[in-house]
Design a protein that fits this description.
Length: 102
């Protein structure tokens, strides 16, 4: 069994805020979405919640914060168990400019 958090074990309000931030990226842009996610960063329950790190990494990439995007996506990759999710995360990492992903 995976040690990663699941939506059921992560506070519902936190999960809803993550989804709201992702929606904001489409309506108000990725910077607005990151501003919505930033307050969640201090919540230790998200340390093992792969969807948070994947969303954060994707948003960071969209605003050109490549180093931070690489860190977040790498963290998400380390938390992912599903082969399809891992492949998607690897593709996102490889698409980032700069040093190729490991």
């Amino acid at each position: 069994m995976s040690s990663t958090a699941t939506p059921g074990s992560t506070n519902t309000a936190i999960t809803q805020r993550k989804y709201r931030a992702v929606a904001l990226a489409e309506t108000d842009g990725p910077a607005a979405a990151l501003a919505a996610l930033d307050p969640l960063a201090a919540d230790e329950r998200l340390a093992g919640y792969q969807p948070y790190w994947a969303a954060r990494g994707a948003l960071l990439a969209r605003v050109g914060r490549t180093r931070e995007a690489r860190e977040a996506l790498t963290r998400a990759l380390g938390l992912a168990d599903d082969p399809a999710v891992r492949a998607w995360l690897r593709a996102r990492l490889e698409a980032l400019p700069g040093v190729p992903a490991d």
